[in-house]
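User: Can you fold this complex?
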Amino acid sequence: MSKGGKMPRLNSQEDLVRLREEILAKRDPKRPCVFVCNGTACIASGGLEVLKAFQEEIERQGINALVDTKGPGCSGFCERGPVVVIYPEEICYVKVRPEDVPEIVKETLIGKKVIERLLYQEPLTGEKEIHESDISFYKHQTRVLMGVKLDPRSIEDYIAIGGYSALSKALFQMTPEQVLEEVKKSNLRGRGGAGFPTGRKWETAKKAPGDIKYVIVNGDEGDPGAYMDRALLERNPHSVLEGLAIGAYAVGASEGFVYVRQEYPLALKHVLMAIEQAESYGLLGENILGTKFNFKVKVHQGAGAFVSGESSALMTAIEGKVGEPRPKYIRTSVKGIWGRPSVLNNVETWANVPLIINKGADWFRGYGTEKSSGTKIFSLVGKINNTGLVEVPMGVTLRDIIFKIGGGIRNGKRFKAVQTGGPSGGCLPEDMLDLKVDFDELTKAGSMMGSGGMIVMDEDTCMVDVARYFVDFLTEESCGKCVPCREGLRQMHKILTDITKGKASENALELLEDLAEVLTGASLCALGKSAANPFLSTLKYFREEYEAHIKGKRCPALVCKDLISYYIDPEKCQACMTCLRKCPAKAIDGGKNLIHIIDQDKCTKCGTCFEVCPSKFRAVRKISGEPVPERLPEEKRKIVRERKAQ
Amino acid sequence: MDIKRVDEIIDQHNAEPSALIQILLQIQSENHWLPKEVLERISERLKVPMSRIQHITTFYKAFSLVPKGRHEVRVCMGTACHVRGAPRVLDRLQDLTGIQPGETDLDLKFTLETVNCLGCCALGPVVEINGKTYGNMAPSEMEKVLAQYE
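Assistant: Here's the predicted assembly.
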């Protein structure tokens, strides 16, 4: 590091303890601190501007010596971003804009008063909550990983909360075998999807022949709608690095890689920063904490390919080749990068390791179910009130996650299905809501845990369209190496597209089922093997929707563009001209006091009229499976308004 | 792109063949596309055959072998955005720009792309233009958004 010498290199366990005491002694827990969430979603909503406004306003008020500001990573409550939390009172403000900042500084920071208007209001009860921990979204979670409060750019913050003490404990008080035993005993299973026992993976690599071994963080989070790994790397990169170093010590590796997805620039930045800091403190690199343990970490950036998240593909990518999977007759934990034993675990898995070492396997097993220990972070998205990251113990029901924490479905709509496990997962219907979420229960129900994406769908979501969407995604992302996946998916995609267009033949479903069978049985890697899941699970639970499309040429959810028409109800239209002006295709005919009519030939079905029609009229309707009513005769189009009696 | 700069980037990675993807990514992010001369230079310096470089640059989505427009419009097609109406937003953008995803218009003004997930699911449907995120988009708003770009 260029600053050289400035950072105190730690050379023993005592050095780390001393440093932590020094950091804590400098800090006053009662000192006010403003946390402005600077995760990707909050930045997109203006989080950086809000943080800057705080810094400027605090400066202007001359209280910068008394107040700290921090821009931590994603706190998970993305729905209400940017989220601001003021400590020590823990006052939580949501959807804060830069204009609100002077008022917050004056009223809350200086005047110690709460600003009602910026508080979070519970969607169900209408109650306002002052403290972050009282908000129902947080209250029902168990935030072991997501709960830490720190600035991800500061290693001191991490050390202050006991960071790197697990690594120190492993190095000085445990043998590599004891570390391995503890992880095995904890029953930690891979958070990336398959749920393979982490301890067993480590053991295989440890026992595999060879002096050079590798440990790898899989941060190629490709599932659309899932971003917990990004959040962990953004908000607490040191915890992942510490876990990785402990793993390296256990299996006997001296080199590690962090594979970060290209779409996550902020996560990449924080990881690089964290590695640099840890090296300068002697917590990574040579002779860690003065011991003989050497461990170097390199970062490898992905280049945008879903299949590269597959273990063998990811390892080939690290070698600088095209990230395509290979047959795994020999596991990657025996022959991985450059043919050497390599342990690949997901970001969240690694982040759990320091906790297990510090608090013990029994503590970890205290959370979750018998076969799935610990907590799991889910990314709850879609048609849900509280979009965000949710950390709960394994075994919590879908209903609790969606309704207690997620606050139910948006706009008072009806729940239809929840899709778990990413593109290769499945959709579960309403009567499965009491399912206890863990690795095995989800698989039994025809879905899977995956990396923890949970996409909530309401009555306005077409399940055939969803299946087509996922198959389309996988067709694009299939690397093309093996035929069943490459060609099978393409055919499935064609047939599903035909169904959504009302052009499918009567035997389309049998054809799809045949293709699904071959795909599942004969594909090379997990992408192809599980690619039929979105189709199979939607067919299992929503067969009538498929049949409506095929036989009735009707889309019950009114989504599939080729099967629906937009129609203005003449009884309800008040000729307000809103849709007429907004229609991008100029397909609406009408005028002042003249009932509007959509020209079906010109209509591009963009849905703008449906969206902009004032809610007091709701005159625009979608119709499917029946012809559009005849055009209203001209003489009936005139609206004669009675003057309102004064 | 200046070949000297390409050499600099290669040197940062010690011309190691295993750093091929990282080198290409760095050049892509600086130059926005990968001209043939650049690829040939990399092939020569890293001693990696051109065929492998072609394999990589056509396999990964991050690379472009043709010049891109001044403004990169990326439409998130993640599942959360999809169920909230992203396909209709994309349709509208195609109508407005006259190009399909993956294409650049003749004036080199816009490049239209789809991405799998930007991880801002709370704001869906999301459109990102030159790195700036536009959340909760509707087809009717796209014209106004694009008008801000010259």
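The mean pLDDT of chain B is 92. Helices of chain B lie at 3-12, 20-31, 36-46, 50-59, 79-83, 86-97, 142-147.
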